[in-house]
Amino acid sequence: MTGEPVATRVSPPWIVVPVLLSGPLLSAMDAFIVTVAIPALQADLGAGPAQVQLIIAGYALTYGAGMITGGRLGDLFGRRRMFTLAIALFTVMSMLCGLATSPGFLLVARVAQGAAAALMVPQVLAIFSALYDGEARAKAINWYGVVAGLGAVLGQAVSGLLITADLFGTGWRACFLMNVPVGVAAVVLALRFVPETHAPGRPRLDLVGMVLVTGALLAVVVPLTVGRDHGWPGWTWVCFVAAVPLFVAFGRRERRAESPVVDLGLFRLRAFSVGMACQLVFWTGQGAYYLVLGLYAQLGRGLDALASGLLFVVVNVGFLASALVARRLADLLGRDVLTLGAGLRIVALTAQLVFVARAGDGGDVGWLVPWLLLDGAGMGLIVAPLSTTVLARVPHAQVGSASGVLSTGVQVGVSLGVALVGLIFYGALDGGGYAQAFGRSLLYPIGVGLVLVLLVRFLPARKADDG
């Protein structure tokens, strides 16, 4: 592997890694934390359904569309500089979200918060890849996958606990305000302990390429995020069609550019291209599952924020237990650790489907607990090893933009899955109850698991394989 020298001993990993992991943890949590807070938020701010949808979508839009550009900016101007700038902005916007006095105020802060997350998250993997090599690098990337996946599940659990606790009378606002002390500490510690790294050589800023890729991603993410709630009006389909020539123009631009935003040669690496396909497919089912489980728990079974959050705590326990051993299992099983994770998820989701089909809108929801644990365990065997697989052979010079592409795949996958499963869930809800809607929706992530099992067979079987 060529590029900038690896500085394994510059900073102790036990300091640098936790500081940087605050970024993906906060950004993943805030992508999901609002869903449990919706009833309290509506009552406090007087927000209507359309405004709530925009508050949720605004974060996803700027987060999903900005990460490729965010990764490249780190390569050019310094990854630590961009990380500290981004997490400082994220912290300020979190504070403003928590102090919001109107739905419009909250929406603007959420949009800016998503943009900050898009700049922040790609720097983490890029810094890990620049500072560490070998075992140290593998451990750092594995922890990134653990924390990013944990944050996605933890968001709804923490939200329920904070709203119920009502700390100092803050209610739903605590979901955002809790980011402030973490963000301040991360900025101080990053400036003190994290070394600065850049892409090697003298790369230039390709503004045309950045505009093209951002526009293309927005043309996909915007309709996916808000199209279903608006009945898929004509402009959503115009956006989808417009995305095609924008991506084509971006590809042509990148082939000619002296300093491309994304080196398209990365996709000639089988581990990267197939791994990215696995990443996209997996997260279409993952984000969708979080959505329908939360809707079924709160609206279908009448659970309050705390009880609903506790269901996600159960998923967290399973996830964390398996994620902590996932890297060692990956060393033993190679790509088959992903197959094992997908298989556990298929079993767990099928069991949930059987329970819901038999119990309907009644029955003790506690019967779901063992299957939620197993489902979390399956997730934990996929998230971290998959991130390591995608980045395993990326040259140091391209790791920033590759990290941006990886993170973008996650967000586009979540948006696509939520849009598709939303159609299934609400379509079934029109003709039946929440149990029926949840049950039919589970068929989608089960199918995603089967597709993932097939895709994994195209990954290199061993670390030395590629092509």
Describe this structure in words.
The chain has 467 residues and is mostly helical. The protein has helices at residues 13-45, 49-77, 79-98, 103-131, 134-165, 174-177, 179-193, 207-226, 234-256, 270-300, 305-333, 336-359, 369-391, 399-431, 434-456. The longest helix has 33 residues, at 13-45. It starts with 12 loop residues before the first helix and ends in an 11-residue tail after the last helix.
Question: How would you briefly describe this protein structure?
Answer:
By secondary structure, the chain is mainly α. Helices cover 79% and strands 0% of the residues.
Annotation keywords:
467 residues, mainly alpha, 15 helices, 79% helix, globular
How is this fold's topology laid out?
Layout: H1 13-45, H2 49-77, H3 79-98, H4 103-131, H5 134-165, H6 174-177, H7 179-193, H8 207-226, H9 234-256, H10 270-300, H11 305-333, H12 336-359, H13 369-391, H14 399-431, H15 434-456
Helix pairs in contact: 1-2, 1-4, 1-5, 1-7, 2-3, 2-4, 2-8, 2-14, 3-4, 3-7, 4-5, 4-14, 5-11, 5-13, 8-9, 8-14, 10-13, 10-14, 10-15, 11-13, 12-13, 12-15, 14-15
Strand content: under 5%
The helix/strand class is mainly alpha
Shape, please? globular
Tally the helices: 15
Mean pLDDT: 85
The largest sheet is: none
The N- to C-terminal Cα distance equals 15 Å
Total strands: 0
The level of helicity is: over 70%
Residue runs with pLDDT of under 50 for 5 or more positions: 1-9
Radius of gyration: 21 Å
Q: Please trace the helix and strand order, writing H or E for each element.
A: HHHHHHHHHHHHHHH
